[in-house]
Design goal:
Helix content: 25-40%
Structural class: alpha+beta
Strand order of the largest sheet: 7-2-8-1-14-13
CATH superfamily of the largest domain: Aminohydrolase, N-terminal nucleophile (Ntn) domain
Largest sheet: 6 strands, antiparallel
CATH class of the largest domain: Alpha Beta
Length: about 300
């Protein structure tokens, strides 16, 4: 059992960004009973004074500063210029100007000793850690992040180990700004993973949720719309799943043919909110709102 949530402010813009981080922390805190092993968010639509946001994590402990220095050197080797940096324990956030191909930058970073690359985005970033939403917010200041939309996850580990690497969201390496949170299990994960590895894709974990992110990003890169990619996943992914996806341009959800994993949704003139349980919606809406429960084989997307 895990919990997922998502929110979009339809009228958000660079001039008037919404408190996406604060809202996601509140929603995920309401879902803590669904999983306390780890928590994570994507905050998208940020106003960034650089070309890219890069999020790096390391398990180097006391040697984290050395790893972070090597990560900055890697950005420079790829042709980028770091414009700002911030660290939180074993996490590093870089803003960088970069005119090259993102896959080259990603590969240069991932080949750097000690570096685990959590995301590269033009207007979004992945923040995740072990523990609850409240603990993650205390360590990383997620509540201060503003944007137009975002998704989040609380995890109860049923497969793979409990650590930061296997916490959701999963970024679709090396595609910028595509990430997924997922409640469920894919039964054709290994077959599809081999297929994408044969195509040259690289996976950073053994979590089946990462595959969904890569699947969708690959479809988007081939020219599909987000809705088309999500609809295709209903046939190509086997198992029981409900997932949320965030891109630079919007977000969406998909539910499998069995509809076994819960999801509730509210859409008003200004806000779209999604969560595994209605209690999470109450942290966003103080007034009573009409909610719906998406059904089997259902897909919905929104654009900012």
């Amino acid at each position: 059992m895990c919990g997922i949530s998502g929110i979009m402010y339809k009228k958000g813009s660079a001039a008037c960004l919404a408190p996406i981080g604060r809202d996601l922390v509140g929603m995920l805190d309401s879902l803590a009973h669904r999983g306390r092993d780890s928590t994570g968010v994507v905050v998208a639509g940020q106003d960034v004074d650089a070309d890219l946001i890069i999020r790096v994590w390391t398990d180097a402990g006391e040697r984290a500063a050395d790893v972070f220095s090597r990560a900055e050197d890697a950005v420079a080797r790829a042709g980028g210029v770091v414009t700002s940096r911030a660290t939180w324990g074993e996490c590093l956030r870089l803003a960088a100007n970069y005119e090259g191909e993102v896959p080259l930058l990603a590969e240069t970073l991932i080949e750097t000793e000690g570096v685990e690359l959590h995301s590269i985005g033009r207007a979004s970033e992945v923040v995740k850690d072990v523990g609850t939403a409240t603990a993650m917010d205390g360590r990383h200041g997620v509540s201060h992040l503003r944007g137009t939309h975002g998704i989040g996850h609380v995890r109860m580990a049923t497969e793979s180990k409990v650590d930061v690497s296997h916490a959701h969201p999963f970024w679709a390496y090396p595609f910028p700004d595509v990430a997924v949170v997922h409640n469920g299990q894919l039964t054709n994960y290994h077959k599809l993973k081999r297929h994408y590895e044969d195509l040259g894709h690289h996976f950073q974990t053994h979590n089946d949720s990462e595959l969904i992110a890569v699947y969708l990003a690959d479809k988007l890169a081939a020219g599909d719309s987000l809705e088309e990619a999500a609809c295709g996943s209903l046939d190509d992914l086997d198992g029981t799943f409900t997932y949320l996806v965030s891109t630079q341009a919007g977000m969406g959800y998909a539910k499998d043919r069995w509809s076994a994993k819960p999801l509730v949704a509210v859409e008003t003139d200004n806000i779209v909110a999604l969560a595994s349980e209605e209690v999470a919606l109450h942290s966003v809406f103080s007034e009573e709102v009409d909610r719906v429960e998406p059904q089997q084989s259902e897909v919905m997307t929104w654009s900012v």
